[in-house]
UniProtKB/TrEMBL annotation:
Keywords of the record: Exocytosis, Transport
Name of the protein in its database record: Exocyst complex component
Phylogenetic placement of the source organism: Eukaryota, Metazoa, Chordata, Craniata, Vertebrata
Entry similarity comment: Belongs to the SEC15 family.
One GO process term, biological-process aspect: vesicle tethering involved in exocytosis
Origin superkingdom: Eukaryota
Organism (species): Chrysemys picta bellii
Underlying gene: EXOC6B
Pfam families found in the cross-reference section: EXOC6_Sec15_N (PF20651), Sec15_C (PF04091)
Amino acid sequence: MERGKMAELESLETAAEHERILREIESTDTACIGPTLRSVYDGEEHGRFMEKLEARIRNHDREIEKMCNFHYQGFVDSITELLKVRGEAQKLKHQVTDTNRKLQSEGKELVVAMEELKQCRLQQRNISATVDKLTLCLPVLEMYSKLREQMTSKRHYPALKTLEHLEHTYLPQVSHYRFCKIMVDNIPKLREEIKDVSMSDLKDFLESIRKHSDKIGETAMKQAQQQRNLDNIVSQHPRIGGGKKYKKDVCASSDLEVKNTSPMSEQDSGILDVEDEDDDEEVPGAQDLVDFSPVYRCLHIYSVLGARETFENYYRKQRRKQARLVLQPPSNMHETLDGYRKYFNQIVGFFVVEDHILHTSQGLVNRAYIDELWEMALSKTIAALRTHSSYCSDPNLVLDLKNLIVLFADTLQGYGFPVNQLFDMLLEIRDQYSDTLLKKWSGVFRNILDSDNYSPIPVANEELYKKIIGQFPFQDPELEKQPFPKKFPFSEFVPKVYNQIKEFIYACLKFSEDLHLSSTEVDDMIRKSTNLLLTRMLSNCLQTVIKRRNTGLTELVQIIINTTHLEKSCKFLEEFITNITNVLPETVHTTKLYGTTTFKDARHAAEEEIYTNLNQKIDQFLQLADYDWMAAEPGSKASDYLVDLIAFLRSTFAVFTHLPGKVAQTACMSACKHLSTSLMQLLLEAEVRQLTLGALQQFNLDVEECEQFARSGPVPGFQGDTLQLAFIDLRQVSLCVFVFCFSFKMCD
């Protein structure tokens, strides 16, 4: 029972489930029916479900059939009505078609006109849009065209301004256009192009000023020279004026080939000779010779582009390179003054340009940079001048170099550069100049001494007499009273040497001009140089002439006379130096001239040479002595050689008239003593083993001749028998020998 009930319950549940599934199938969309059917096949009663499904389908078919039967008559009626409507519709269609055809035919022109109107409206709208866009684009294109025109005409700075205006004002308004994008892309290239072109102009400018630095420097130095000329006109320095006046007096009085022998000609080749300069000519400034606009343009361009520091570094680097090239002197610079002048012009031109840039470029270069360059230039310039000036042996060139250096220093000092080291170096060159002067004047003195005839200067008239007196400070009242023709006691080399010493002094003075030295320093320098001239050069020349083999007694006597007069003239040289330096000799630390010592030493050497030459002449005569010590009878007079010797001594001592008395007396006494000693040696020499009374009597005659010469007073000034005492020993020896021989003969 229970099983039956259980089966019945399961059958009821299955039937209910199948009913639910069928309802669900009927009410569910076909796309979603899959899960429902699947639930049927998942169970075991799908056969029963299929039966129910078939039953449900049959029920629905019956209902459809009932519904179709119920509405069939209405369907037939509807079909009939539709057939009637179709006929009317055909008629209406034909009428509409005809009407449409007529309308199309009639409206064809209107359609064409409407199409034309449409096109016109479209064009009008496009034109209006185009005008609006062009209104925005044309200023951009105009600015771009203006930019290109400015770049073509090399107006780079305005072009850069235009480019900035174009980029920030105009292009943003039309940035969506393709040509604007092209312009935007080209802007960096245009900036680089402007930078490159402006840098190219700067390079051309740097190359140009490198080539024309000497012209710029020459112009600046001319300006400095003109300023100095104006300053000299406003206030003349009394010392320099006095020196020039004295110079004219010296040259006016010089004669006797002084002009030909002077190493310093009247017209020096120095650049400071202002007479040849045209003071009225206006010299242009550096800004008139150089167009600095490329520098300013390039500086502004790089400043606008934010690359000012890059530009400054490049400019300074290039100028440093150019400075090193400018400061490299040519190897042959020392040969001519033009070499030095070109070297200085280039340096001045370089720093004139830099000074102008410093004051006009608003920071392109600064004072520290200029000072650094100047320190380098100053050290290299001084080193080059020391090296090249050491090769110079011409005092005229050294003097011209000094004048050029002074002008160089004054020019740069006018631009604010310190030049004290240049003036310190000039003091070094001054020593070299003194050495070259000494060498030059040594040759002058040698020429004067070699060409002198060592004879008193004859004068035939008053004019020539005054001319000599004008050349050399000589006063002799007795000579003035003598009638013409007459002779000065000294030879021609006295006024020549005296004037050359003055020429040397003035040459030393010329170097000291414009060195900013005090009068005391100038005086000290002149005196020291003059002392070197006297004690070294002139003294050596005199000693050379005195020691020369072919210098005779007459020449030696004249040298003694000449040096005596030159010694007396030293005080006039002192006055000459005082007049041109305005420093009194009594000033403390004033150097004294050593001329007196120089001429005394030369005179003493000449005296010694006279004594030596006299003794040599006496020895030459004594070599002719040929005593026959075995002669039976003496001769009737003194030996011929001795007679000739005495005659020579008389003529020689007659020349000693103008010598100082002591010199003539010493020479005479020395000669007599030497003669006495030599004769005694002849008598007592070892080869004389025997002699006769006749030979002794002949020797006695010779001794008497010597004593007679001594008694005759060949040189005035001896007291009593002083000169005869030179032969006293000879007399005594000869008497002893004579007495001995006579006694020996008597014994026989």
